[in-house]
Amino acid sequence: MNNSITVTVKLFAAYQDAYGVPELSLEIPTGQTVEQICDRLILEHPELSAFKEITRFGVNLQFVEPDTVVQNGDEIVLIPPVSGG
């Protein structure tokens, strides 16, 4: 039995700067939340930890709470605050 799923994570602002790409394809364990995915990215790029508390999460073009569980094929968006106008 396969206990992992694949999701697409769209990166913006500081997240995109850290990774150098506009999106990631991640294989994650089933039952993970958007917050756990964010934590994984911060683990790989600790400089992003400053944005954790102020990042908004989206799944499939809908804003969601951090404890939202993702499904196979979901598109996750991490939206840190953007400065400027």
Automatic annotation (TrEMBL):
Protein name from the UniProt record: Molybdopterin synthase sulfur carrier subunit
Keyword set includes Nucleotide-binding: yes
Alphabetized UniProt keyword annotations: Nucleotide-binding
Cell cycle keyword on record: no
Organism: Leptolyngbya boryana NIES-2135
UniProt xrefs under InterPro entries: Beta-grasp_dom_sf, MoaD_arc-typ, MOCS2A, Mopterin_synth/thiamin_S_b, ThiS/MoaD-like
Gene3D superfamilies hit by this protein: 3.10.20.30
One Pfam family this sequence matches: ThiS
Gene Ontology BP annotations: Mo-molybdopterin cofactor biosynthetic process
A GO MF term: nucleotide binding
Record-level GO cellular component terms: molybdopterin adenylyltransferase complex
Family according to the record: Belongs to the MoaD family.
